[in-house]
Amino acid sequence: MLVAGELDRLRVVLASASPRRRELLGLLGLRLEVIPSAFEEDLDKAAFPGAAAYAIETATHKAIEVAGRTFGAAGPADLVIGADTVVEDPSGAVLEKPADRAEAVRMLAGLSGRKHRVHTGVCLVFPKVADPKLGKQPYVRQLSETTVVEFDALRQEVIEAYVDTGDPMDKAGGYGIQGAAGSFVKGIEGCYFNVVG
User: Fold this and answer.
1) Domain that holds residue 110
2) Which end of the chain is flanked by fewer CB atoms within 10 Å, N or C?
3) Which of these, 146, 165, 45, 192, lies nearest to 105 by C-alpha position?
């Protein structure tokens, strides 16, 4: 177990360009190096038993890709953190970032007045640690967190006005709960910060 101050001596890399993830991990006191993943995030959603499993696998690909690029004069990172957040709409479809304005409007209209799930998959890669089962490096741990969010019924003009702000375009499901879209939320079951990212 690490004691106070020891974590500061470790090289911790966040495999994401997300300012929200960086901020959340910073609130924990982690000093992070940010190396955004180059993974294409093009996995076949139909190949997974559910949205959470899809998010975990995407996070794993991100973390492993970045872990492979952290080798340098000081050696590999001590820990690489990968994460992926997706929204599962009421029909079970996985919603990532909208491709355009029309898709953002469709996503939000589909969530209006209904409950949906937000899944964050997390992968922790320890490049210097051997996996006890495989006997070789790296040691990889995966997990996910799910939060249920319920939206109020949204008028079309409200959806379109929100989409026109541009805020939905870099967020899974087309909304950010920490911003103006927080006013859409009628209820939440689970961790708020999981929805933030």
Assistant:
1) 7-196
2) N
3) 165
Whether 65 contacts 36, CB under 8 Å: no
Q: What's the domain count of the chain?
A: 1
3-state secondary structure 30-52: CCCEECCCCCCCCCCHHHCCCHH
Asked whether residue 137 is domain-assigned, the answer is yes
Distance CA 191, CA 181 (A): 17
Task: Work out the average pLDDT over 35-41.
Answer: 92
Q: What is the DSSP secondary structure assignment for residue 153, as one 8-state letter?
A: P
| % of the chain exceeding 70 in pLDDT | 95
Contact partners, residue 3, CB within 8 Å, separation at least 6: none
Q: Which residue has the tokens 């087309």?
A: 174
DSSP 61: H
Cis peptide before 49 (omega within 30 of 0): no
For the purposes of burial, counting CB atoms within 10 Å of the CB of 159, is it exposed (0-12), middle (13-18) or buried (19 or more)? Answer: buried
Distance, CA of 174 to CA of 84 (rounded, Å): 15
Question: What's the pLDDT tens digit per position in 55-108?
Answer: 999 999 999 999 988 776 567 899 999 999 999 999 999 999 999 999 999 999
The set of catalytic residues is: 84
